[in-house]
Amino acid sequence: MTDRLLIPLLALACVIAAFFACLLGSTPLPVERVIAAFMGGGDAADRLVVWAIRLPRALAAFLTGAMLGISGAALQGLLRNPLAEPGVLGVSASASLVATSAIFFGAVAVNPWFLPLAAIIGAVIATGLLALAAIRTQSVVTLILVGVGLSSFAGAMMSLMMNLAPNPFSLAEMINWMLGSVANRSFDEIGFVFPFMAAGVLILLVSRRGLSALTLGEEAASGLGLNLRRQRILTVLGAGLATGASVALAGAIGFVGIVAPHIIRPIVHHDPARSLIPSALLAGLILMVADIFVRIVPSQNELKLGVVAALIGAPAFVWIAMQRRSVHD
Amino acid sequence: MTDLTVSDLTVEAKHTVLVETANFSLKTGELVALLGPNGAGKTSLIRGALNLERPTSGTASLNGQPLATLSPSQRARKIAYLPQIRPLAWPNKVRDIVALGRFSHGAALGKLSATDDAAVARAISACDLTDLEHRAADTLSGGELARVHCARAFAAECPLLIADEPTAALDPRHQFRILDLIKTFVEKGGGALLVLHDVELAARYATRLIWMKDGKIVADGSVAETLTQQRLADVYGVRATIDGTRVLMDGAL
Lengths: 329, 253
What we know:
The structure holds 2 protein chains of 2 kinds. By secondary structure, chain A is mostly helical. Chain A has a domain at 3-81 and 176-324: ABC transporter involved in vitamin B12 uptake, BtuC (Orthogonal Bundle). Chain A has 15 helices and no strands. Chain A has helices at 3-23, 31-38, 44-79, 91-104, 107-110, 114-136, 140-163, 168-179, 187-206, 209-213, 218-223, 228-250, 256-264, 272-296, 305-323. Chain A is globular and about 65 Å long. In chain B, helix 5 packs parallel to helix 6 (172-187). In chain B, 32% of the residues lie in helices and 30% in strands. In chain B, the strands form 3 sheets. A 6-stranded mixed sheet of chain B has the order 6-7-8-3-9-10, sandwiched between helices. Classes of the chains: A mainly alpha, B alpha/beta. At the A-B interface, helix 10, helix 11 and helix 14 of A face helix 2 and strand 6 of B.
């Protein structure tokens, strides 16, 4: 497969997956009824299933994956580490933390829109802290450690809130949030987070060329004429916005941001800049397919997408980590 | 004619003076070797001169224009910088690494303009990398990788080149090859400042030597003027005998 065909092929695969997401489910619809519903025909129940349930759900899975994929690819380029991921820098955890607080303190009961809003605020705060750290330090290791600290702190606060949960109902809601799912998402919810996603993606794409230069290390990249500080801030901000919006839509879903770029990298000749768009498409595809699996697998409680992603992703993470050569510190 | 002039440059980090009121210049047509023991401040001097590290005081200017007023990519189009070689983050293709030399000209990997492509091709053939063009960088030997880094510096087609220990960890033949490449670059109208640790190699190739010790430039002049037994004793703390450009060191003082 050449890198020229990569993006069109992945885009095609995403369209096909979205179509299958509309066909398959607890009550499979035949192809002609789905096509009729797409065209605005067919019977009203079919149109409801396709337009109000299955299509927005598939789109939510795609967007969530795409945001995590592009953020992972960009952060890996910035930090020159194939294990970097929105989760590693604490952005997902911080977004979840603020969202969980909104549930805990009853804000969500007042207005359900506070939930996505809180997740985005959490991600932007985490992103701001990381951007500050990026300005103050020259060291990537320090930046990763700040992220790990942020992530651990958010995790501890989350455990504390679950520990103190006033009733089983809010505990269940927090757990749902942490597990990650795209079930019952509507176009309205997608529309609310979409501007943040678009802004994040735009920032990452505009600044992607610098990621290629960083292949040579920070010192050489500065020598090549890269404004290192600006690059760090833009990448962290873009990944923060995209990740925050994805957490707002689907909760915390891990590892897809590591797996997709890892598969894409050899195909784009290990150029981080060229890996962004294909990684986004592949991660979106992975989550759409995983979500179809979640819906059709017979189980008493519906499996959560985040759980399935972690079951596949965590062993892949370990495998990728084991493959790293020690010379690449 | 391009010249980099550094005046009264002082670089400090955490209240330690790394470089103290250093003055030097680098012009096209010169191959200058920067010599000095470990910790003398050679790398800090270079980084301060390139404005990669903000100097505490003093200025570096390019053809009279302060470097601090240039954007990073404007600077990078005038001075190519080869820092000490570090492992690459990813196993990129040789041609892509060389193409990164065109970064300051706005090149994006995978879709180089005709101008960028031609510059990359010239650098690849100048550094004798044609056979390795499509190899992954992690399959190269240290000597080959050093040539790849030279090629990416040349691909920028800057008038000036500053290289920090370009021959470190290379076998004698590769040290000669790298210095020959840089010498050819200077003969074609470039100017180069190289940090070197091999005094004899420096004396053989350089048109001028700059000697540094404890953050200060202690001598700046031709090989004949500045390469003396006393200088080697003062700067490096070694006992040596000198015969033209031949240097025989036989122990620490």
